[in-house]
């Protein structure tokens, strides 16, 4: 095949893989923000939980990114 | 690998493209050793110092708080003492005041009784004077009235009765009658 | 080529060459010698370790009760992990793991920040080997804690058969949990770090290389649009700084969570 060709397959793989985590991260931080807004003193308890959820969701998008380059 | 990419370094093969994900042995070793040596060194030289500093700081702050508490307690004691003194002074003042009040009323009472006594004395003296005057006047009057009556009677009878004891007794009886009748009339 | 959806052919001029995985393969600094294996990321990681060591030792040396500006910065970094991560997440008995967590955080943060520091400008941890080693370190730490607490079989029993679930779930749950603890956690830790740094670095390369290419192009429209691309690169640089520190925090936080889970009696 022609090595000069630039394909969009990889970017598209990542684009699809980013949809779900995008929604998920939005939901997580929405819940975190409203939780802190309701009870500001719970911030220290909620922050690790929010970032844990964020990390677990984010890894899905990052796996998609890796597959886009394979 | 059906997809091919271009990199700034030029066209790369599939093996090369995947090699970024396959860790190189030297990277593993250097990364691990670097991290472990760093961890060991910091554990030895840096972190105990931090903890010690934090403890010293905590102790210093606690000492400061203790000092402040002591000063506060001292201030509170001084305040209590001052207030007690103030209360003492206030009580003393009030006793002095009440004593003065009693003294005043006593003096007033004394003066009043003295004045009353003096007034009574004056009154009684005046009454005695009046009585004496009255008695003197009465004695004078009775003598005068006897003489006048004798004069009158001698003129009426025409003879001198002045030296006669009988005549004098008559006059006395007459005056006594007069007195008793006048006293009855006063009564 | 069935998976090729769109192919854009560049004709005479090779045109703009987008950054790719090749940009992460550095040539040896001393080619043809005995130390051929020394590359820029390797040197950068050693430099990061030295910098972290100097940062903490100099900050800890003075030990003033009323800290100066630098000492305060160093102590804040230490207390941020000590209180914000170790104490809040692990709870009772956290003091033992503070050194590990602080070192992990500082080492990752400095390595990541190399991505935006001039002349270095490469996030070392975009090379998969480094984060993999760090992840294996934290993997060994939490496995060691769990095994020391409950014994080898006891620990894996508590991992695979958490109490209080209906029996028919266990055949499904046990392999997943075992895989989770043994494989998924360390690899997701390492992969998260690498992929974030990788993506951030590619993004920066794209904006800067693209801006340079547009600026040097004869096409007037591209020339006019080039400053926007370069401005985007500058804006993304500060965004990357945030992401780089955030990823270091997340790595530390997850490690602390795994340690806390291994320490707790019930799984």
From TrEMBL, chain A:
Instruction: Give the matching InterPro entries.
Output: ATP_synth_csu_bac/chlpt, ATP_synth_F0_csu, ATP_synth_F0_csu_DDCD_BS, ATP_synth_F0_csu_sf, ATPase_proteolipid_c-like_dom, F/V-ATP_Csub_sf
MF GO annotations:
lipid binding; proton transmembrane transporter activity
- What CDD domains is this protein classified in? ATP-synt_Fo_c
Q: What Gene3D superfamilies has UniProt attached to this entry? A: F1F0 ATP synthase subunit C (1.20.20.10)
What is the protein's membrane topology class? Answer: Multi-pass membrane protein
Instruction: Tell me where in or outside the cell this protein is found.
Output: Membrane
- Give the transmembrane region(s): 12-33, 45-69
GO CC, sorted alphabetically, is: proton-transporting ATP synthase complex; proton-transporting two-sector ATPase complex, proton-transporting domain
Family, according to the entry, reads as follows: Belongs to the ATPase C chain family.
- Listed NCBIfam families: ATP_synt_c
Record's protein name: Unannotated protein
UniProt source species: freshwater metagenome
From TrEMBL, chain B:
Coiled-coil annotated residue ranges, if any: 65-99
- Principal location: membrane
Question: Its GO biological process terms?
Answer: proton motive force-driven ATP synthesis
Question: Which GO terms label this protein's molecular function in UniProt?
Answer: proton-transporting ATPase activity, rotational mechanism
Record's subcellular location:
Endomembrane system; Membrane
Q: Which InterPro entries match?
A: ATP_synth_B-like_membr_sf (IPR028987), ATP_synth_b/b'su_bac/chlpt (IPR002146), ATP_synth_F0_bsu_bac (IPR005864), ATP_synthase_B_chain (IPR050059)
Keyword tags:
ATP synthesis, Cell membrane, CF(0), Coiled coil, Hydrogen ion transport, Ion transport, Membrane, Transmembrane, Transmembrane helix, Transport
Cellular component per GO? Answer: endomembrane system; proton-transporting ATP synthase complex
What Pfam family is a match for this entry?
Answer: ATP-synt_B
The cross-references to Gene3D superfamilies, in alphabetical order and at most eight, read: F1F0 ATP synthase subunit B, membrane domain
UniProt cross-references to CDD domains, sorted A to Z: ATP-synt_Fo_b
- Record membrane topology: Single-pass membrane protein
Signal peptide (residue range): none
Q: What NCBIfam families does UniProt report for this protein, alphabetically?
A: ATP_synt_b (TIGR01144), PRK05759.1-3 (NF004412)
Q: Please report which protein family the annotation says this sequence is part of.
A: Belongs to the ATPase B chain family.
Entry's PANTHER family? Answer: ATP SYNTHASE SUBUNIT B, ATP SYNTHASE SUBUNIT B', CHLOROPLASTIC
Q: What does this protein do?
A: F(1)F(0) ATP synthase produces ATP from ADP in the presence of a proton or sodium gradient. F-type ATPases consist of two structural domains, F(1) containing the extramembraneous catalytic core and F(0) containing the membrane proton channel, linked together by a central stalk and a peripheral stalk. During catalysis, ATP synthesis in the catalytic domain of F(1) is coupled via a rotary mechanism of the central stalk subunits to proton translocation.
Q: What is this protein called?
A: Unannotated protein
């Amino acid at each position: 095949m022609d090595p000069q060709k630039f394909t969009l397959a990889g970017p598209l793989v990542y684009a699809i893989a980013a949809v779900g985590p995008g929604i998920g991260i939005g939901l997580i931080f929405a819940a975190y923000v409203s939780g802190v807004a309701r009870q500001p003193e719970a911030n220290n308890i909620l922050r690790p939980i929010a970032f844990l959820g964020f990390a677990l969701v984010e890894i899905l998008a990052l796996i998609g990114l890796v597959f886009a380059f394979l | 690998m059906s997809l091919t990419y271009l990199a700034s370094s030029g066209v790369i093969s599939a093996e090369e493209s995947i090699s970024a994900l396959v860790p190189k042995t030297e990277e593993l070793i250097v990364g691990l050793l670097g991290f472990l040596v760093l961890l060991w060194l910091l554990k030895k030289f840096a972190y105990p110092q931090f903890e010690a500093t934090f403890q010293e700081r905590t102790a210093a702050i606690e000492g400061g708080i203790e000092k402040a508490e002591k000063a506060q307690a001292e201030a509170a004691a001084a305040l209590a003492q001052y207030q007690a003194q103030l209360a003492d002074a206030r009580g003393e003042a009030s006793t002095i005041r009440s004593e003065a009040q009693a003294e005043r009323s006593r003096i007033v009472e004394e003066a009043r009784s003295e004045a009353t006594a003096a007034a009574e004395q004056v009154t009684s003296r005046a009454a005695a004077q009046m009585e004496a005057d009255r008695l003197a006047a009465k004695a004078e009057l009775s003598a005068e009235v006897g003489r006048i009556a004798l004069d009158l009677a001698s003129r009426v009878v025409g003879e001198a009765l002045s030296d006669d004891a009988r005549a004098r007794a008559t006059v006395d009886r007459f005056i006594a009658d007069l007195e008793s009748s006048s006293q009855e009339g006063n009564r | 080529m069935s998976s090729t959806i769109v192919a854009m052919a560049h004709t005479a001029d090779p045109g703009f060459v987008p950054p790719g995985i090749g940009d992460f393969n550095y040539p040896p600094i001393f080619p043809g010698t005995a130390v051929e294996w020394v590359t820029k990321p390797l040197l950068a990681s050693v430099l990061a370790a030295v910098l972290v060591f100097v940062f903490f030792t100099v900050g800890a040396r003075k030990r003033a009760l009323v800290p100066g500006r630098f000492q305060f910065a160093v102590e804040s970094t230490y207390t941020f992990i000590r209180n914000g991560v170790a104490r809040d997440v692990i709870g009772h008995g956290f003091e033992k793991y503070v050194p590990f967590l602080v070192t992990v955080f500082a080492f990752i943060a400095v390595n990541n920040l190399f991505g935006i520091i001039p002349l270095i400008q490469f996030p070392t941890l975009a090379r998969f080997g480094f984060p993999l080693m760090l992840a294996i370190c934290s993997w060994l730490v939490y496995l060691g804690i769990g095994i020391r607490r409950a014994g080898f079989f006891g620990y894996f029993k508590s991992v695979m058969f958490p109490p209080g679930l209906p029996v028919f779930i266990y055949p499904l749950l046990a392999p997943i949990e075992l895989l989770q603890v043994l494989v998924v956690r360390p690899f997701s830790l390492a992969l998260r770090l690498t992929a974030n740094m990788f993506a951030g670095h590619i993004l920066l390369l794209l904006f800067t290389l693209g801006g340079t290419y547009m600026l040097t192009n004869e096409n007037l429209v591209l020339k006019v649009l080039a400053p926007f691309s370069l401005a985007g690169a500058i804006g993304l640089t500060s965004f990357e700084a945030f992401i780089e520190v955030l990823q270091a925090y997340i790595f530390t936080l997850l490690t602390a969570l795994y340690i806390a889970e291994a320490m707790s009696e019930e799984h």
